[in-house]
Amino acid sequence: MSIFIRTFVLRYVTLLLTLGLAAPTVSADSKILATAGGQQIEGQAGGGLVPWALLAGYAEAGEWGGSVAVTGVRVDDFDLRVTGAAVNFGNRFEASIASQQLKVQPLNLSIDQDILAMKWRVGGHVLYGNLPAVTVGAQAKWVRDFAIPELLGAADDHGIDFTASASKLWLNALFGRNVFANVTLRHTEANQTGLLGFGATDGSGPSWVAEGSVALFLNHHWALGAEYRQKPDHLAAVKEDDWRDVFLGWFPNKRFSVIAAYADLGSIAGLTDQSGFYLSLQVTQ
Amino acid sequence: MNTARAFLITVAAVACLASCTTTSPPQRTLYQALGEYEGIEAITDSFLGELAGNQQALPLFLNSDISRFRAQFINHLCVTANGPCTYEGDAMRETHRGMGISTAQFNSIVENLIAALEANGVPTSTQNALLQRLARHYDEIVEEPF
Ligand code: HEM
């Protein structure tokens, strides 16, 4: 199974690269600074925890671009590392791949997960016109270490999240500053984003959850914001809490950005009050 | 709980930061904040300097009368900022439609303008107020929206 997945992942990456190189290589710099967003923990353009209705990198119509990011989240008993890459075709379609590794410190073991995701911008624009940018997306996930999820009552080692998001930036909205907001609805059966497997052997799930982010741009380069990610709670054995964070985003230029956050992830796998720091470094084109 | 407190502190800090750095009292018009006519002239000249290096948009200006464009652009900015000018150029839709202007090109002009505003030390809140008004022309100017 795992060999199959890895082969599939490799093919997917190759396909993305081929598509990317085949597309006309017009300078992919045409979006306004910071409208690439960051790369959230599942590899898609977004904030820290929430995917946004923005597409990775700085490609507009007729161009292609993308992002590569490394992210670390260190809370009391866990350490999450994410490596992700996303490709954006014409600010219309995004395909991404992410690999997560969750270190469970008390047990001295780790749980890995692979995620392939896609996002399609249906319409609207984050900056122009009255309509927000609206996207629909899917995140296919495979947890590679199923022993613990299974022990906790998870039914599957793979699952697909479906999302719909809307994003808008209002110029000169508050104290002369620009305000950004995003709302995402997600259909999911993932436990702790999939790191604790999918569904439950008692048959509960899937469910709809809501996620939201707001940010205030202090100037063209700095944004201060907060996020909330509602979570399902399917496993009977361990409680799952909603996630939230406050973040600071820095966009010095269109090649590089940093998102630093303080995240409260609540109870994870029976260990309560998991909170700590989040740092994501992103390279964009 | 921790996050809730951190969130409140953040909001309070942002509120203070934002209001403390808003240098212009509310009764000042955007025209005044931009430095009145001389300010708008200087911004336009910086903008033209930026435009000269804009590979995406420059080709469209090859046959343009730049001194006419400069004059009309200044008047347009002045009127946009509620200044005491009259814009005598053509309407935005008539001027730009037919050139096939893309969102990418529109963004490149916005970036040239931001660079010009930065170069002239225009505060963020004044920049945002001007950009908010100019962004409304998007639909009249761009032909392949979104
Ligand atoms: C909010 C954004 C914009 C504003 C406020 C604006 C404003 C103006 C004004 C006031 C004129 C002079 C009209 C006249 O002479 O009667 C003009 C002309 C022109 N604009 Fe724009 N413009 C904007 C965006 C763009 C964009 C995105 C492009 C293309 C990349 C563009 C290309 C041109 C060209 C080529 C002319 C000259 C036409 C001629 O030679 O007469 N403009 N614009």
Description:
The complex is a heterodimer of chains A (285) and B (146). Chain A is mainly beta. Chain A has one domain (2-284): Beta Barrel (Porin). Chain A is 9% helix and 52% strand. Chain A is built from 2 helices and 14 strands, in the order αβββββββαβββββββ. Chain A has helices at 2-22, 147-151; strands spanning 38-39, 45-46, 64-75, 78-89, 93-104, 109-123, 133-143, 158-174, 177-188, 207-217, 222-229, 243-250, 256-268, 271-284. A 12-stranded antiparallel barrel of chain A has the order 3-4-5-6-7-8-9-10-11-12-13-14. Chain A has a two-stranded antiparallel ribbon with strand order 1-2. Chain A is globular, with a radius of gyration of 18 Å. The two termini of chain A are 34 Å apart. Chain B has helices spanning 2-21, 30-33, 36-51, 66-80, 92-96, 103-119, 124-135, 138-141. Chain B is mainly α. In chain B, 27% of the residues are buried. The radius of gyration of chain B is 18 Å and the shape is globular. Chain B contains 8 helices and no strands. Helix content of chain B is 64%, strand content 0%. Chain B has a single domain (30-141), classed as Globin-like. Chain A binds chain B through residues 27, 30-33, 60-63, 91, 123-125, 127-129, 171-172, 174-178, 216, 218-220, 224, 226, 244-246, 262-264, 275, and chain B through 2-3, 6-7, 10, 13-15, 17-19, 22, 55-56, 102-104, 106-108, 110-111, 114, 123-126, 128-129, 131-132, 135, 138-139, 142, 144-146. The structure holds protoporphyrin IX containing FE. Protoporphyrin IX containing FE (HEM) is lined by residues 57, 60-61, 64, 68-69, 72-73, 76, 89-90, 95-96, 101, 105-106, 109, 134, 137, 141 of chain B.
